[in-house]
Amino acid sequence: PYFNQINVPLGIFLLFMTGVGPLLAWRRTSVESLKKHFTIPIACFTVTAGALLAAGMSHVYAILSFSMCAFVIGAIFLEFYRGTRARRSTNGESYPLAFIKLVLGYKRRYGGYVVHLSIVLMFVGFTGAAFNIEQNFPVRKGESFSIKNYTLDFLDLTQTDQGEYVSYTSTLRLSIDGEPVAMMVPEKRFYPIQDQVTSEVSIRSSMAEDLYIVLAELDDTLDVATFKVYINPLINWVWIGTGLLVFGTMILFLPDQLGKKKSVRGRRPSRRDPRVDQPETESVEV
Questions:
Q1: Cβ-based neighbour number of residue 91 at 10 Å
Q2: Gap between the Cα atoms of 54 and 147, Å rounded
Q3: What is the side-by-side order of every strand in the sheet holding 202-205?
Q4: Shared domain check, 62 and 36
Q5: Model's pTM, two decimal places?
Q6: Cα-Cα-Cα-Cα dihedral sign, residues 165, 168, 169, 175
Q7: Alpha-helical segments (H) within 92-203
């Protein structure tokens, strides 16, 4: 509880700064610029918060976090859109070409925006942890149990000797909203030499949530078992955000265009200054 009380508000504040920072011009911020840059992000925040409240969500920090994610996404996409539109109007390029050249021409700026977007996606996954579910189900073979919109039918539990270990494998039929979709086979392994027991988790993954089923306990008759079920919403968005973070970092480290040279001329030194012993002009290749 202490960790959540301190770090959750701090994380939401850092997420807010991720969206606000790129929108504030250094020493040139005015009321008009604030209206120009913040109207759409604030609208995204408001619409998201209203939609979540209308859907019945009551978790305050989750509403703030999801709404702040919408705020930052709106701010980032607004920056990409304005930059792409400006380049297209100047050079007459198509939107896709203008977008690519914009990113490659200003890698630090727009690569940084990609990194910011990756952080937002990871926060979506982190926020989903507020709705994690963990529950134990002791059931007899042939019975079923339900959690959320999932129904699991306990079909079988077998024991097999695999040489190095003894396997206890359970078979469950998974139905979602009454429709059978998959067979889940959580397993428990006993290693006699090491005198150790391990669990092989059965997982069904989706963009919305991950379902984990663990064979927690079983009796000697193999007729009764206890299954531990975990439901972790939005966890895959953490991995998507991590991949996008790597991609944004790669953009930041892309080399500049080869063969592009600039000639910089220095000012003509005064002949009266005896300390000057360099040529009157200097050419530097960048």
A1: 10
A2: 24
A3: 133-140, 224-233, 209-218, 202-205
A4: yes
A5: 0.79
A6: negative
A7: 95-105, 107-128
Counting the structural domains of the chain, the total is 2
Q: In whole angstroms, how far apart are CA 77 and each of 41, 43, 134, 175?
A: 9, 13, 37, 39
- pLDDT tens sequence across 118-147: 999 999 999 999 999 999 999 999 999 999
Same domain, 98 and 145: no
The answer to the question of residue 252 being in a domain is no
77-134 pLDDT, tens digit per residue, is: 998 999 999 989 888 888 899 999 988 888 888 999 999 999 999 999 999 999 999 9
Farthest-apart Cα atoms in the chain, separation? 105
Residue 259 domain-assigned (yes or no): no
Place of tokens 């942890």: 129
Instruction: Judge contact between 125 and 234, C-beta under 8 A.
Output: yes
Half-sphere exposure of 142 (CA within 13 A, CB side): 1
- Are 50 and 8 contained in the same domain? yes
